[in-house]
Amino acid sequence: MALTPKILVPMTMTERRYSRAEDGIRAEDGNSDGNGDSGGNDRGNVGIATKTRSRTKQPTPYRVLMLNDDYTPMEFVVLCLQRFFRMDMEAATRVMLHVHQKGVGVCGTFSYEVAETKVSQVMDFAQQNQHPLQCTLEKA
Ligand code: TYC
Fold it and tell me: What is the distance in A from the centroid of ligand 1 to the CA of 129?
């Protein structure tokens, strides 16, 4: 037998309503008084109530930005947006023209790791094709 101390918490009917899993509270029915002899006088009103709260933190979002330049062909920018940001031809063309006219545009918002990977993919692809296309990220 493990020497784990058992905490006995009397449960009222009201408390028992919180024993649903989606509330994050579990109540184990205690038909024994915890000493293992089942001879207690708690009449099943004693159990162990454990409350767990799940804290799933959302990652800080980062925007990937595309920058305009005078030399990268429009078709190449559209290809990058389709290939690395999964845009269709229409969305990619709209973003490319926005960048062309305004100087900068948002390709998407991601976790830091994903945003960094996408920036590297665009920059590597541009370099391989001898285009000066620049891509960067910023906290969203
Ligand atoms: N300005 C470029 C041209 O006229 C096109 C271009 C668009 C380049 C978007 C970069 O991020 C960019 N060929």
Answer: 14
Q: Is the pLDDT of residue 98 over 90?
A: yes
What share of the chain has pLDDT > 70, as a percent? 66
Q: Which residue has the tokens 């030399």?
A: 71
**Is pLDDT above 80 for 130?**
yes
What pLDDT digit, counting tens, does each position of 35-64 carry?
444 444 445 566 767 778 888 899 999 999
Tell me the CA–centroid distance for residue 99 and ligand 1, in Å. Answer: 7
Q: Do residues 47 and 71 lie in contact, with contact meaning Cβ atoms separated by under 8 Å?
A: no
Q: Is the CB of 133 under 6 A from ligand 1?
A: yes
Q: In angstroms, rounded to a whole number, what is the distance separating the alpha carbons of residues 135 and 123?
A: 7
Helix (H, G, I), strand (E, B) or coil at 10: strand
List, as one string, the DSSP characters of 33-72. -SSSSS--S-TT-EEEEEE-----PPPPPEEEEEE--SSS
